[in-house]
Amino acid sequence: MNNAKDLYLYQREGLYIPRIAAVHDLCGYGKCSLGAAIPVLSAAGCDVCPVPTGLFSAHTRFPKWYMHDTTDMLEGYLDAWAEGGIELDAIYSGFLGAAEQVEAIKRLYREHPKALRIVDPVMGDDGIRYPTYTDELCEAMIGLVDGADVLTPNLTEASIISGKPYQGHDVDDAYVHETIDAILEKGAKNVVLKGVIRSDGIIRNYIAGADTEFTEVTDTALPYLMHGTGDLYASALLGAIMSGRSLYESVEFAGQLVIDAMEVSVNQPDHEIRGVQFELSLGKVTALLG
Fold this sequence. Notes:
single chain, alpha/beta, three-stranded antiparallel sheet, 10 helices, 36% helix
């Protein structure tokens, strides 16, 4: 079994800039999805290649939002990439606009078999599915679990994937083990389960894999939650991986970056709805390259 502290998923070489296909939606207002992935991964010295799965006026926590489904454009979009000889080092997927979009991700997997597969299975939070997520879309999203080098579900998403009942943020180790084991049985190589918060005021993220030892990473929990932290977390995690950090170091870094950004965000106007503001923390991402 691998120790997460010794598990390196990407070897950074010299001045080479790795290319990452970021398969996410784009929001005009509110911090999430490509609005987090592009700046965070760019700060980590990566070439971010967006594949937009939907265009939103604002994220879905706002009382009024508009969505444009981009499914119909994805085949031609990826055809042009294939004809242009695009090369990728990682494929990073998040929020999807339709079940058919899973096939676009699987196509990228087929055409770039050596690329890392990072799947943030964005489907919901606090025990509630996002309003655009149908049963069909959730089932299609679960199809991306098999073969994922790193899967980063929160407890809501882990419940949907594993089929275990959602029990809130305060769950014991037995529930965590059973849930992660059920996800690993679906073919994920490594799972990072996020956001276990118990009465002791500690937030716990867990790492486990088919060949990776069960590991707990802890931080002090803040007394509030904030929209967009999952996207920031997954982007920071991948940025650290692509900077040559171990999986354990990457999980540790992502958790601390989110906390730092939340501490800044709570002082911003309308933070309850706008979500996490990470701009002042991007220097810490760039420092990964040092």
